[in-house]
């Protein structure tokens, strides 16, 4: 049975282990230890993600969360705010994003094991580096994962709060190689990489392009000193759209634009990589994740509330690997702020929903 005191204690224990992105060794070790204590074969893959498996019946379901947290996330001191809410002391985040997701997975496994009874095979993947670009999920050992459907426990709000639509995300790296020269003595011998990069930047998609498409130049880096023509400039950015064709069109026109700039500056060498970082999706009936979760939510009295999100989660990466993922709420609010808090009954509801989903054997 999902047990409130136990899941709360697990959550508090996990929050007590600092795990800012890039410093996940301690939390990974703790998760591995706890999974093994439950009798699961737990391992860390080459990227340090914690993977585990609990045998059951029927096609496996992947349960996933991430173990890293954002800053300020060191020395977190959780405290109760009334009977149902846990906050930090106001100087750090709380880390419910995503220690609550980790606690839900551990509680569901414990409940499955101690109650016995039929359930699907459960695969577990707790990722590193989610908050810094889905790094763990991108480098996960997918040869160890056979599930074609996943529940990613990493959204704010109650479990009915589902990330129902996420954008296609494209990223680019553009390098302009020019030629340096003394800016005062012989500038005509130089090929000014920064100026050429500026021409490129001026033609890249930026800001809100329409109600489902955005673009951003995030980094421009070049030049060393004031009095030399710069021989190098790097431009990095991204664009996103809920519609794959729109994102593809932006990628094509960005490439054309860069070719035009290159033609204007034959002495420069421009190297551009524009690529899809992860695919978007829209949860619709017939999607294996929606078909798994929606009936379970309704049977427990929750009406699924899918909403679009502008960012990516590990769920996007899983979809890129052919795993139909759904991202559900686990009771956190004000994520990535010092006002972050956890509504304990919603974390419990999330655990009940996830357990019920895993106990639903395919017909
Ligand atoms: Zn998260």
How do the helices and strands line up, and which of them pair or pack?
Elements: H1 4-15, H2 25-37, E1 41-44, E2 50-54, E3 57-66, E4 79-80, E5 85-87, H3 96-115, E6 120-127, H4 135-138, E7 149-156, E8 161-166, E9 168-177, E10 181-182, H5 193-202, E11 207-210, E12 213-222, E13 228-229, E14 232-241, H6 244-264, E15 269-278, E16 281-282, H7 288-299, E17 305-308, H8 314-320, E18 324-333, E19 341-343, H9 344-359
Parallel strand pairs: 3-6, 3-7, 7-18, 8-17
Antiparallel strand pairs: 1-2, 2-6, 4-5, 5-19, 8-16, 8-18, 9-14, 9-15, 10-13, 11-12, 12-14, 18-19
This protein binds zinc ion.
Task: Describe the 3D structure.
- The structure is a single chain.
- This protein is 32% helix and 31% strand.
- By secondary structure, it is α+β, with helices and mostly antiparallel strands.
- The protein folds into two domains: 4-166 and 280-358, 3-Layer(aba) Sandwich (Aminopeptidase), CATH 3.40.630; 168-278, Alpha-Beta Plaits (2-Layer Sandwich).
- Strands 1, 2, 3, 4, 5, 6, 7, 8, 16, 17, 18 and 19 form a twelve-stranded mixed β-sheet that branches. Strands 11-12-14-9-15 form a five-stranded antiparallel β-sheet.
- Helix 3 packs across helix 9.
- The two termini are 24 Å apart.
- Bound molecules: zinc ion.
- Zinc ion binds next to helix 3.
């Amino acid at each position: 049975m999902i047990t409130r005191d136990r899941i709360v204690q697990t959550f508090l224990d996990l929050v007590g282990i600092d795990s800012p992105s890039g410093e996940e060794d301690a939390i990974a070790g703790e998760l591995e230890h706890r999974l093994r204590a439950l009798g699961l074969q737990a391992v860390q893959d080459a990227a340090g993600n914690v993977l585990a498996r609990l045998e059951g019946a029927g096609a496996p379901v992947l349960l996933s969360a991430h173990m890293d947290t954002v800053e300020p996330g060191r020395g977190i001191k959780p405290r109760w705010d009334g009977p149902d809410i846990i906050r930090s002391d106001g100087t750090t985040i709380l880390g419910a994003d995503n220690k609550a997701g980790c606690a839900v997975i551990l509680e569901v496994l414990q409940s499955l094991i101690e109650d016995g009874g039929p359930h699907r095979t459960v695969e577990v993947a707790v990722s590193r580096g989610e908050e810094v670009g889905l790094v763990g999920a991108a480098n996960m050992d997918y040869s160890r994962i056979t599930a074609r459907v996943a529940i990613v426990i990493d959204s704010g709000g109650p479990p009915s709060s589902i990330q129902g639509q996420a954008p296609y995300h494209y990223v680019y790296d553009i390098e302009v190689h020019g030629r340096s020269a003394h800016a005062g003595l012989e500038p005509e011998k130089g090929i000014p990489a920064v100026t050429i990069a500026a021409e490129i930047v001026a033609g890249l998609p930026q800001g809100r392009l329409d109600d489902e498409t955005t673009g951003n130049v995030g980094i421009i880096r070049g030049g060393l000193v004031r009095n030399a023509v710069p021989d190098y400039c790097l431009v990095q950015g991204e664009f996103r759209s809920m519609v794959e064709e729109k994102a593809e069109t932006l990628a094509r026109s960005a490439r054309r634009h860069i070719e035009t700039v290159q033609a204007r500056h034959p002495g420069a060498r421009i190297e551009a990589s524009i690529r899809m970082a992860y695919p978007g999706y829209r949860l619709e009936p017939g999607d294996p994740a929606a078909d798994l979760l929606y009936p379970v939510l309704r049977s427990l009295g929750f009406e699924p509330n899918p909403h679009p999100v502008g960012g990516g989660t590990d769920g996007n990466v899983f979809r890129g690997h052919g795993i139909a993922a759904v991202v559900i709420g686990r009771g956190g609010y004000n994520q990535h702020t010092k006002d972050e808090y956890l509504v304990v009954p919603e974390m419990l509801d999330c655990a009940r929903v996830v357990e019920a989903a895993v106990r639903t054997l395919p017909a």
